[in-house]
Amino acid sequence: MKIEVGQKAPAFSLFDSEKNKINLEDSKGKNVLLLFYPLAFTSVCTKELCNVRDNISFFNSANAQVFGISVDSIFTLAKFKDDQHLNFPLLSDFNKDVSAAYGSLYETFGFDMKGVSKRSAFVIDKDGIIKYAEVLENAGDIPDFEAINKVIEELK
């Protein structure tokens, strides 16, 4: 399913790397940045998420909650978060339901892996409406953070 700007964000409930159940609905009243990424510990994913880590003050000042989402297990995500000192929640979409709902799932990825999250970014406003949507076909590309930050700035 392709997610379009202006539509209501698909609801979800996922476990984070600390084994807490996180519901998108609990973020009502905040702006949300969802970052789907293929796999923890890979170079591009690490670069992308560390960039967000290093700029978390921007997101915090914009009342924006950042969530990183991949199909990795909560245990893998806990190690990745700890190793990279990430300062925002990583959510496990191990069953691939949320990635599919957001149109962010590769049928086949490298090494014949099936069902890996596509690198993508979604900004959701305080009312749960999609304000930015970017799904990348090439896992080596990084979302357009200049455009993302502009949208988040406008939502302040």
What does this protein structure show overall?
The protein is built from 5 helices and 9 strands. It is α+β, with helices and mostly antiparallel strands and about 160 residues long. It has one domain (about 15-155): Glutaredoxin. Strand 1 (about 15) and strand 2 form a beta hairpin. It is globular, with a radius of gyration of 14 Å. The model has no long low-confidence stretch (mean pLDDT about 95).
- Summarize the helix and strand pattern as letters: EEEHHEHEHEEEEH
E-strand count: 9
Walk across the major sheet and give the strand order: 2-1-5-4-3-8-9
Average predicted confidence as pLDDT: 95
Taking all Cα atoms into account, the compactness measure Rg is: 14 Å
Structure classification: alpha+beta
* Total domain units: 1
Number of DSSP helices?
A: 5
**Low-pLDDT segments, ≥5 res:** none
User: How would you classify the quaternary structure?
Assistant: single chain
Query: What is the fourth-level CATH superfamily?
Result: Glutaredoxin
3D shape: globular
Question: Main β-sheet, in a few words?
Answer: 7 strands, mixed
> Terminal Cα separation, in Å?
29 Å
